[in-house]
Amino acid sequence: MEISLKGRSAIVTGASKGIGFAIASRFAGSGADVAIVARGREALDAAVKEIKTATNSQVVGVQADVGTADGVQRAYDEAMAAFGKLDIAVNNAGTSRAGPFEAMSDALLQEDLELKLFAAVRFCRLVIPQMKERKWGRIINVLNIGAKASAPTSVSRAAGMALTKALASEYAPFNILVNGLLVGLIDADQHVQKAKSRGISLDEYKAPLAKDVPLGRFGRAEEFANMACFLVSDQGSYITGTAINVDGGRSPVV
């Protein structure tokens, strides 16, 4: 299936590496203009250059911390200044966290909620009004299969799943489709960093985890991006209010 996003403009947070970068690349390769948002300037500039080299789309990089209200506003303002409109928003910022409940401090939980839940709330609050005007919009909240089970991720991601369903219902009359994509074990920078912190190779880190995946392997970021691209396209025009596991069958629930 050939998917065209020509004429569409998108913003993707946490997009200088991993899943966010793959989504931004897929969108740009399908014809969309894309604003990629990240905190680190060096990685952001490298990502913009790589996507521009590979596609004919307009790509801008926005350095912002979307874990703050000011960062979200800056990212939105710069993307709007570049494109004049935003048809697609992908709330992807954040990494998976897990740990015992008794070790979860208020500060840790608040930080997790700011980056994962409130960033999505704030972006949606900004993009939805102009989507309503055109009666066309696509929002994807990148969550984690932990949303359906490991604090603090389960708390913030479950809230994100509830937000997804609520927004999908309220804005369906305006043809604004809102879906969640739940990450399983997907090749991403966070796994590289975890392997380094344990002093082992990436293959050594991944091997025991992959055994828990029915497909027997980690997913590729490009595979995740393919589903995101379908959902924001005209071909996905009757899908809203759902949370899709992209996990090789790993989640015990649908």
Question: Can you give a write-up of this model?
Answer:
This protein is α/β, with parallel strands linked by helices and 254 residues long. It is built from eight helices and seven strands, in the order βαβαβαβαβαβαααβ. Helices cover 47% and strands 16% of the residues. Strands 3-2-1-4-5-6-7 form a seven-stranded parallel β-sheet, sandwiched between helices. α4 links the parallel β4 and β5. It is globular, with a radius of gyration of 17 Å.
Report the major sheet: 7 strands, parallel
Per DSSP, the total helix count is 8
Helix content: 40-55%
Please indicate the percent range of residues in DSSP E strands (runs of 2 or more): 15-25%
Quaternary: single chain
What is the N-to-C succession of helices and strands? EHEHEHEHEHEHHHE
- Give me the side-by-side strand order of the main sheet: 3-2-1-4-5-6-7
Average of the residue pLDDT scores: 94
Radius of gyration: 17 Å
Choose one word for the global shape.
globular
Structural class: alpha/beta
Task: Give the CA-CA distance, first to last residue.
Answer: 25 Å
Q: Could you list the spans in which at least 5 consecutive residues all have pLDDT below 50? A: none
Number of strands: 7
List the helices and strands and how they pair.
Layout: E1 9-13, H1 18-29, E2 33-38, H2 41-54, E3 59-63, H3 69-83, E4 88-91, H4 106-134, E5 137-144, H5 153-171, E6 176-183, H6 189-197, H7 202-210, H8 221-232, E7 243-246
Parallel strand pairs: 1-2, 1-4, 2-3, 4-5, 5-6, 6-7
